[in-house]
Amino acid sequence: MIMMVLAAIAVSCDKDEDTETCDSEDLAEDFSCPVDVDAIATFCTDGVSDSYYTYNGNDYMCTGVEASTCDNALIQLGVALIEAGCGTKKNSESFDSGLIELSQMAENLLAEVRAESLYN
Question: Across residues 52-56, what is the average pLDDT?
Answer without folding.
Answer: 93
